[in-house]
Amino acid sequence: MIITNFSKQANEFKEPKVLKTKPHWQGQNLSDTTVKSKEPKIQDTTSDSSIVNSLNRGRVAIFIDGLNLFHTALQLGIEIDYVKLLCHLTNGSRLLRAFFYTGVDNSNEKQQGFLLWMRRNGYRVVAKDIMQPAENFKKSNLNVEIAVDMITLAPYYDTAVLVSGDGDLAYAVNAVSRMGVRVEVVSLQTTTSESLIDVADCFIDLDSIKAHIQKDSNLGYSYRTPSNSNL
């Protein structure tokens, strides 16, 4: 795994914050961790694949820019295994929530089936209808949704894992960093904005972990469409 580390001062302390209402946790029960510990941000001290294992990442929140990841996978020539991806990004830490942001075409049943599968396998899907401007080019940008979720949930997690290379998210990353959150950016280095890398605590090149997150050639998923689902 190729990881670029960035040195930052470790004198930022988080103020203890108590959840007034227990949120809906994904994964294990975290009812005994509602008060955030008053600890400084942990700094990266190694440069190999043991870095994530050696860090006390606390509670982890994952934010995946679906369209950005899709184009990255095309460039790498792989198909993402989203179960492997979630396990690799969590890596034994306590998962608060894993968000997957994407534009949707409601007429595309295959996509609807994929998103249904994602919801049932550990992801909170945040979807926006794909816009089709006059030039007949479909697009959807969810940077605002990603930034808002990262900032509003910051009191409830210790480490943010942002899977995107979009420099427009650098301001949001910087904002949560000032709140005492450690931010890991995961993307393809050749297409990631330098402004995003500069404000991250840790950058992981997707090319270095593709063997751990790609689908096995002899396996596949059967994505159910809403029409053939029992629910």
TrEMBL record:
Q: Give the matching Gene3D superfamilies.
A: 5'-nuclease
What domain of life does the native source organism fall in?
Answer: Bacteria
CDD domains the record matches: PIN_LabA (cd10911)
State any single GO MF term: RNA nuclease activity
Q: Which Pfam family, just one, is annotated for this protein?
A: NYN
PANTHER family given in the database record:
SLR0650 PROTEIN, SLR0755 PROTEIN
Q: What is this protein called?
A: NYN domain-containing protein
Give the NYN domain ranges.
59-207
Give the species this sequence originates from. Nostoc punctiforme (strain ATCC 29133 / PCC 73102)
